């Protein structure tokens, strides 16, 4: 239980750190494009991760 809470805190911290770095490094005019690309990467990973994991477990094994 504590491990999942720590993972949630770390994920939130990574999101905030990314946004802070983005604001610091990218001009206001180009920022929406960078945010869109980053969110596209996150959405693609969330959608494809479950499918890829299911395919791997189905055809290989879940044991490492």
How many strand elements? 0
Number of domains: 1
Radius of gyration: 16 Å
What percentage of residues falls in helices of 4 or more residues? over 70%
Q: Which structural class do the helices and strands define?
A: mainly alpha
- In terms of DSSP E residues, the strand content is under 5%
Order of helices and strands: HH
Mean pLDDT, to the nearest integer, reads 88
In whole angstroms, the N-to-C terminal distance is: 23 Å
Number of helical segments? 2
Can you summarize the main beta sheet?
Answer: none
Describe what you observe in this structure.
- The chain is built from two helices and no strands.
- With 64 residues, it is an all-alpha fold.
- It has one domain (2-59).
- 0% of the residues are buried.
- The model has no long low-confidence stretch (mean pLDDT 88).
Summarize the structure.
By secondary structure, the chain is an all-alpha fold.
Set out the fold topology:
Blueprint: H1 2-25, H2 31-59
Keywords:
single chain, 0% strand, mainly alpha, 64 residues
């Amino acid at each position: 239980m504590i491990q999942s809470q720590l993972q949630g805190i770390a994920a939130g911290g990574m999101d905030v750190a990314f946004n802070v770095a983005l604001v610091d490094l990218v001009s206001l005019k180009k920022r929406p494009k960078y945010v869109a690309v980053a969110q596209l990467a996150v959405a693609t990973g969330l959608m494809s991760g479950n499918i890829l994991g299911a395919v791997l477990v189905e055809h290989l094994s879940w044991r490492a």
